[in-house]
Q: What sequence folds into this?
């Protein structure tokens, strides 16, 4: 929690995400290790994240007053209740804004992408009455694994990124819960604390 010395209301830095299970996380760690090896010295400006903290962000909420947390938790739970578990697959490597000028390196996703997009849209719909305006950018699911520390982005990575993408063994991932996280920004990197895990389960019930 972000503490205030001036008597202001405490805030939490929150985001909503799908958290890979242990099996998928092992494959993600292997993919990141292969990527680090492939970029070699050309990737000296990249800062790789910890595989243990990699996640699929559905919505970043920012610094939120602690009193708003119950409403957010209810919105997350409602969105999760309307979605079935998702069969996803980690596959492919790419970069934003492009492999020739890299600010962010990501692992791509395949599988149940239409239900995943529907889940993200449902979450937006549930959060809107709480004052969180819907996202205007198209939903582009990805796992961020590295960021460039170079001004203007890292250069000369197109070839190793393309080679790594072609060689990457797809990693199956069964997403079964939507998680509300609190992010703590620390010197060694961000630390993510789960505040709520809401099981994905379609609202359609069987008799």
A:
């Amino acid at each position: 929690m972000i503490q205030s010395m001036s008597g202001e209301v405490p805030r939490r830095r929150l985001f909503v995400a799908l958290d890979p299970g242990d099996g998928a996380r092992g494959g993600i760690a292997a993919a990141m290790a292969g990527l680090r090896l492939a970029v070699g010295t050309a990737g000296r400006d990249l800062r790789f994240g910890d595989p243990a903290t990699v996640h699929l962000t559905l919505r970043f909420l920012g610094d939120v007053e602690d009193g708003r947390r119950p409403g957010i938790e209810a919105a997350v739970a409602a969105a999760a209740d309307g979605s079935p578990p998702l069969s996803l697959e980690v596959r492919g490597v790419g970069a934003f804004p492009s492999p020739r000028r890299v600010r962010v390196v990501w692992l791509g996703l395949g599988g149940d992408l239409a239900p995943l997009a529907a889940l993200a849209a449902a979450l937006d719909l549930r959060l809107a009455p709480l004052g969180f305006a819907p996202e205007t950018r198209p939903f582009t699911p990805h796992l961020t694994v590295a960021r460039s520390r170079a001004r203007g982005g890292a250069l000369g990575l197109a070839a190793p990124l393309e080679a790594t993408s072609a060689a990457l063994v797809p990693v199956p991932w069964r997403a079964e819960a939507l998680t509300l996280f609190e992010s703590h920004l620390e010197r060694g990197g961000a630390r993510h604390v789960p505040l709520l895990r809401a099981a994905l389960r379609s609202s359609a019930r069987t008799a």
About this structure: The longest helix spans residues 22-39. The longest strand covers residues 86-98.
